[in-house]
Structures are given as C-alpha cells and as structure tokens.
Amino acid sequence: MTMDGATGPEKRSTPPDDRPGGVDGALATAVRARNGDLAVFGVNGFMFATWMSRVPDVKHLLGLSPGRLGFLLLAVSAGALCGLPVAGRLLQRFGSVRTVRLGLVTAVPGMLLAALAVTLAAPVPVVMAGLFLVGLGNGVWDVAQNLEGSVIERALRRAIMPWFHAAFSAGTVLAALVGAILVRLEVPLLAHVGAMAVLCVAAVLWGTRRFLPGAAPAPTAAPHGTASPAAGPRARSAWTEPRTLLVGVMVLAAAFTEGTANDWLAVAFLDGHHVEKALSVVALAVFLAFMTIGRVLGPRVLDRYGRQPVLLVLFASAIVGCLLVVLGTAPVAFAGAALWGIGASLGFPVGMSAAADDPARAAARLSVVSTIGYTAFLAGPPLLGFLGDRVGVLHALLVVGLVSALAMLVLPATRPLPGTDG
Q: Using CB atoms within 10 A of its CB, is residue 17 exposed (0-12), middle (13-18) or buried (19+)?
C-alpha cells in the first residue's frame, strides 16, 4: 500500500498517457509537486537558520561558555535523532503531506518556547526543551521532504535532488541575511522568531498542497512488480545493509561539515577573528550562499561526471576552505567560508539520492541514512564546544578537515545501484 492508501505498484504502473491530461498532465503534476517541495525545503532551511542567526545573541544573553553553548545546541540533535528513526513508519501510515505538517507543528512551538525562555532568562534546561522539539519536528519533516523529492526526481527522470537542498540553503541564506539586519537593528529575539514562525507555517501549507498524490514507494516491492535490486525475496532491515550504512557514514561526514559551519562559524568569526557581531553573521551567510550555488549547479555536474568524482573534489574543497578560515586573516577567512560552502554543498543531497536509488526500499533507507547523518549534529556541538574551551572555537574547526578526509574513503558506496535509475 502507498502512504495514502492506494495500491502502490498498480498506481505507479499506469502509463502517463492513460492519466487525465496524458503525458503533459503527468509532467505538469510533477512540476507542481517539485515547486511545492522546493518551498517546503526552503522553509525548513529558513526556520533553522532563523534560530542559528541568533546563536551569538543566545550565547551572550545566557552568559554561556563555548562548552555550555555546545551542550545547549545538543538538544536540537537529540530531538532529531528521536524523530528520524520513526519517520519511515510515520510516512507509511500518514503520507508525506501529513508527516511534513506533523514535523512543522512540533518544531514551530519548540522554537517559540526556546526564544521565550532565552528572553526571560529561564534556566538552560527550559531552552533545551524547546530546542529538543525543534529537532524532533525537523527530523520527521526532513525525511518526509527528502522522500517526496526522490519520488519527484524519478517522475521527472532528472537528478534534481541537489535543487531541493539548494532551496534549503537558499532559505538559510535569506534567514541569515534577515538575521544580520535584525541583529544590527537590535530587534528582540522573540519578536524575530515569532514573525518568522507565522511565515513558515503559511508557506509549508502552500507547498504541501502541491505534493504528488499517492507518491509513497511500496515497502517491499519495486515498481511494476519487479524484485527490488537490493533486497532479496524477503525484505531485510535497512540497518543490516552494508551499502546503506556506508552511505550513512558519508552523509554523517557531510552533515558534520555543513552543521559545524551552521553552528559555529559566526561564533568563530566573532571570537577568533574579532569581527563585529553583524559581520560574523555575514560570514555565515557567505558560507550558506556558496553552498546554495553548489547545489544549484550540482545536477549538471553530477550528470556529467558522476557522484564519486564530484564528491571527491568537493570534500577536498571543504578541507582547503576550513584551513583558510582557521589559519587566514579575516578577509582570507571569508574566502575560506565561500570555499567551505562549495565543498559542503552536495554530500547530503547525493547521500539522499543514493539511499533512494531503489524506490521499493527508499523510505526505510532514507530513515537509516538520515539517522546516521544526524549523529553528526548530535556529536558536533559538544565536540566543538569541548575543543573550543581548550583551543578556542576557531582552531577547533580544524576537526572538519579531518572528518572530510575520512569521508573520501567511503565514497564508492554512493555509486548508483545496478538496475535502478540512480
């Protein structure tokens, strides 16, 4: 059964010419769904970066050391790791539309609670409770939007998953720029977060109305009733599949490379390069802007050169960019942030596409790969905070280069599965 209750293979095996509107109608429906999912990804990034743009303020208002700030940010990742493993089951039961909305109505109240707690100087555990809800909702939302993206990708027969993640990045860029302006204008945290929450809810409702109907892959059978290329006669847990686990490790490294910059780059520029607060947020915006550029251009590059060679170059770029940020002067560090952004651009979306190569197993594998990947967000904040207490936040960022180097060892796992459209 699909997530919306229709029989999966039969529904998807209907030739486009037999649907109302024929091929053109099917294409228009897929394009409409693409635009809706682009909006959902964009809002997800916008909401996330709205909070991250105020992290230096949160650090100051609560009087936190780098280590305590890292512990605070850990709550987001802990919530995500609780949401990700159950996302696959929620998708099979409720469908992608309702699962995204479930994530939304969990994350938004959490962000409002965290902002209110910081404003009232409430105990740190209260702030962490709000951030836990942000992570919980975001984890469920993330798997659902990626699954919808993989289905749309197959419907359009184009490798467009990086575009969805580009929309996420564009949302983070916009939120970071808005955040920089509002920080400069000294707009209160709660007013900032509250206004952005209203916009996010409206945009997600608009986007999810455009999702593909009955787009869930069947859990045990490939399209047209053929056997899954990666599963035997009897489906096994995705947690026992070596390729899925290795793809997850690559996504973990990519998430660490991206997430470390999201959490700590502004703080590193503020404390390490001693730029003013608003300019430190601009450094984050530079990173996010160039990551977005990489994702916009990604599909053409991936189609031409393939996943493994492209990822090899990009992880190398992330290493060089990280070194420039840490070891360079402030202007050089801004250039390093741009190169780091390019390097972090495609690891996560390519990992999602690789996990969804076989549509019959896409939901389960996406849940596994996302769970492994988000472990980086669980380990990253306290690790960087711990190192930051000892060597400074700026020099602690060197660990990103090490993780990126290790990611290069597992890149062969991202090659498309035989017999799939990946």
A: exposed
